[in-house]
């Protein structure tokens, strides 16, 4: 006798064997016991959750000669015929290959004939969303008012594609994804019946990889058993067969990413590729690992939030404290985009490597969540005393450069490296530079801001007529400027603006007009080109007219 796949061999034959869909099983059993059977049912849900299985059990139950608590007995001739697939009362139709109007017309003609055996003629139409628009219209009237001996059971994985006119004529049942615990318990029960030696950890990984589908879980288990026929099925063998990655590898990879060790992260990926791991599965599993970390970080009860072993939970708790939620969400976003791109990519390794580099180097991205990661990295560096000691901080400007780690040459212009020689000081301004300042006074004012700029608009640049030294006196006419004069930072701001314009260091003093007591501005004079130069250079010179920046 040929081998029968596990999911076919252990397909439930009555309602009691169905796992994970108790809300549907209970409703259908009550309908059968109370003889309140509907004429049209719609079973919706993802693959492998039991839609077709329950449809066949329901077909047996409504025709069973000796039902037991709403379930078929599986012993009467009707049940045996349905189990063998020879019953004329249960008609299974694949709508994917029989989706035309003519196929539905054949059904309409057949429903006119009563069942030859049993009470009901049951039509099970699988993947009903594949019917054409014309086929749906042809089915409408029959579906709404079928003969009393006809039951329609429609099954679909995409309920949103079914017309509302069909939905309104059916009792809809939504099949849930089956939990990991339910799948694992069922697999362990079946392995005991088969006499196979399987590790519980291996069973749990297969149950998680099935993503809520009992049929997928049985198929994966069948595949692993066949590969290691006659041997004990261990967790490592399951990972090897499915091309999956152990959670310890994810932990090591995450720690390298948080430390911004790009080369080490790429080396871990290369090792996985050499060991034959499937990159699509790696991306999916790493997203799941990050999701668990996010739940642990946000949950008050991490033990209930994630389903992992105790040792893995302790390690993940430690990692959840090493990274903030914004960074985790950024990692999940990048790998989720990668999951969509890698499916049809020919160079999968390149895409994964680019994603890892993005995770290790948040400066490559400019969106908000990458900014959070960049701030995290900077805070970690600033909290390291050894990092700060390695840079000089001889004053405010030097201290700021040290705080940024000497990032000149890394995309941050204007911040000199701490271990580089100090920048040369600008030359002292000569008396003739005062004339240039006066000619460009308006453009210098534009370099300032706030109250200082408003006061400077009403000021006059002057010099000391007695000494003739290259000192710029800024005379304010408004007494409100005393606030600006008392703030020493304003002098530095103005000096920086002048230095930017003339390229020299000019001494600046802020004063009020001489009629204000204590102003100290009695000897100040307007800056005159000829007098100023003759007094200090003692020769006649011709000064070219300097155009105003305006």
From TrEMBL:
<keyword id="KW-0235">DNA replication</keyword>
<dbReference type="GO" id="GO:0003887">
    <property type="term" value="F:DNA-directed DNA polymerase activity"/>
</dbReference>
<protein>
    <recommendedName>
        <fullName>DNA-directed DNA polymerase</fullName>
        <ecNumber>2.7.7.7</ecNumber>
    </recommendedName>
</protein>
<comment type="similarity">
    <text>Belongs to the DnaX/STICHEL family.</text>
</comment>
<dbReference type="Pfam" id="PF12169">
    <property type="entry name" value="DNA_pol3_gamma3"/>
</dbReference>
<keyword id="KW-0547">Nucleotide-binding</keyword>
<dbReference type="GO" id="GO:0003677">
    <property type="term" value="F:DNA binding"/>
</dbReference>
<dbReference type="Pfam" id="PF13177">
    <property type="entry name" value="DNA_pol3_delta2"/>
</dbReference>
<dbReference type="Pfam" id="PF22608">
    <property type="entry name" value="DNAX_ATPase_lid"/>
</dbReference>
<dbReference type="InterPro" id="IPR027417">
    <property type="entry name" value="P-loop_NTPase"/>
</dbReference>
<dbReference type="InterPro" id="IPR050238">
    <property type="entry name" value="DNA_Rep/Repair_Clamp_Loader"/>
</dbReference>
<dbReference type="GO" id="GO:0046872">
    <property type="term" value="F:metal ion binding"/>
</dbReference>
<keyword id="KW-0548">Nucleotidyltransferase</keyword>
<keyword id="KW-0067">ATP-binding</keyword>
<dbReference type="InterPro" id="IPR012763">
    <property type="entry name" value="DNA_pol_III_sug/sutau_N"/>
</dbReference>
<keyword id="KW-0479">Metal-binding</keyword>
<keyword id="KW-0239">DNA-directed DNA polymerase</keyword>
<keyword id="KW-0862">Zinc</keyword>
<dbReference type="GO" id="GO:0006261">
    <property type="term" value="P:DNA-templated DNA replication"/>
</dbReference>
<dbReference type="InterPro" id="IPR001270">
    <property type="entry name" value="ClpA/B"/>
</dbReference>
<dbReference type="InterPro" id="IPR022754">
    <property type="entry name" value="DNA_pol_III_gamma-3"/>
</dbReference>
<dbReference type="InterPro" id="IPR008921">
    <property type="entry name" value="DNA_pol3_clamp-load_cplx_C"/>
</dbReference>
<dbReference type="GO" id="GO:0009360">
    <property type="term" value="C:DNA polymerase III complex"/>
</dbReference>
<dbReference type="InterPro" id="IPR045085">
    <property type="entry name" value="HLD_clamp_pol_III_gamma_tau"/>
</dbReference>
<keyword id="KW-0808">Transferase</keyword>
<dbReference type="InterPro" id="IPR003593">
    <property type="entry name" value="AAA+_ATPase"/>
</dbReference>
<feature type="domain" description="AAA+ ATPase">
    <location>
        <begin position="37"/>
        <end position="179"/>
    </location>
</feature>
<dbReference type="GO" id="GO:0005524">
    <property type="term" value="F:ATP binding"/>
</dbReference>
């Amino acid at each position: 006798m040929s081998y029968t796949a596990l999911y076919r061999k252990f397909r439930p034959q009555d309602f009691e064997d169905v796992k994970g869909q108790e809300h549907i099983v209970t409703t259908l059993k009550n309908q059968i016991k109370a003889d309140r059977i509907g004429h049209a049912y719609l079973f919706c849900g993802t693959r492998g959750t039991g839609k077709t299985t329950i449809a066949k059990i329901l077909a047996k139950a409504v025709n069973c000669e000796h039902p037991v608590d709403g379930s078929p007995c599986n012993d009467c001739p009707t049940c045996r015929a349905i189990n063998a697939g020879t019953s004329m009362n249960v008609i299974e139709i694949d709508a994917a290959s029989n989706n035309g109007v003519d196929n539905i017309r054949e059904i309409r003609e057949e429903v006119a004939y009563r069942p030859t055996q049993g009470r009901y003629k049951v039509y099970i139409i699988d993947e009903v969303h594949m019917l054409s628009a014309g086929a749906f219209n042809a089915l409408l009237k029959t579906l709404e008012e079928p003969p009393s001996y006809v039951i329609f059971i429609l099954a679909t994985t995409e309920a949103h594609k079914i017309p509302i006119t069909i939905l309104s004529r059916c009792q809809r049942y939504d099949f849930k994804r089956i939990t990991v615990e339910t799948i694992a318990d069922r697999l362990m029960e079946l392995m005991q019946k088969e006499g196979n030696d399987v590790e519980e950890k291996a069973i749990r990984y297969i149950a998680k990889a099935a993503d809520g589908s009992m049929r997928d879980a049985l198929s994966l288990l069948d595949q692993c058993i066949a590969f290691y026929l006659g041997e004990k099925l261990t967790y490592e063998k399951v990972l090897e067969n499915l091309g999956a990655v152990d959670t310890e590898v994810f932990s090591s990879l995450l720690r390298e990413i948080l430390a911004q060790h790009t080369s080490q992260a790429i080396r871990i990926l290369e090792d996985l590729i050499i060991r034959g791991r499937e990159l699509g599965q790696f991306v999916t599993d790493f997203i799941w690992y990050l999701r668990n970390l996010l739940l642990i970080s946000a949950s008050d009860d991490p033990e209930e939030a994630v389903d992992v072993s105790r040792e893995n939970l302790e390690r993940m708790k430690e990692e959840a404290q090493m990274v903030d939620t914004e960074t985790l969400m950024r990692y999940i976003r990048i790998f989720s985009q990668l999951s969509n791109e890698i499916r049809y990519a020919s160079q999968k390794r390149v895409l994964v490597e680019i994603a890892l580099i993005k995770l290790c180097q948040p400066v490559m991205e400019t969106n908000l969540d990458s900014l959070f990661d960049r701030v995290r990295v900077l805070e970690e560096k600033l909290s390291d005393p050894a990092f700060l000691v390695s840079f000089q901080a001889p004053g405010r400007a030097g201290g700021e450069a040290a705080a940024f780690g000497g990032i000149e040459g890394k995309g941050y212009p204007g911040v000199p490296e701490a271990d580089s020689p100090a920048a040369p000081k600008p030359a002292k301004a000569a008396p003739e530079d005062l004339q240039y300042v006066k000619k460009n006074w308006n453009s210098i004012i534009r370099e300032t801001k706030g109250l200082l700029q408003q006061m400077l608009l009403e000021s006059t640049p002057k010099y000391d007529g007695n000494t003739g030294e290259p000192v710029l006196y800024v005379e304010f006419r408004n007494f409100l400027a005393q606030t600006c004069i008392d703030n020493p930072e304003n002098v530095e701001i103005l000096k920086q603006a002048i230095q930017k314009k003339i390229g020299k260091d000019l001494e600046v003093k802020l004063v009020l007009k001489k009629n204000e007591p204590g102003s100290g501005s009695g000897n100040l004079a307007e800056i005159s080109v000829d007098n100023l130069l003759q007094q200090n250079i003692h020769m006649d010179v011709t000064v070219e007219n300097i155009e105003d920046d305006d």
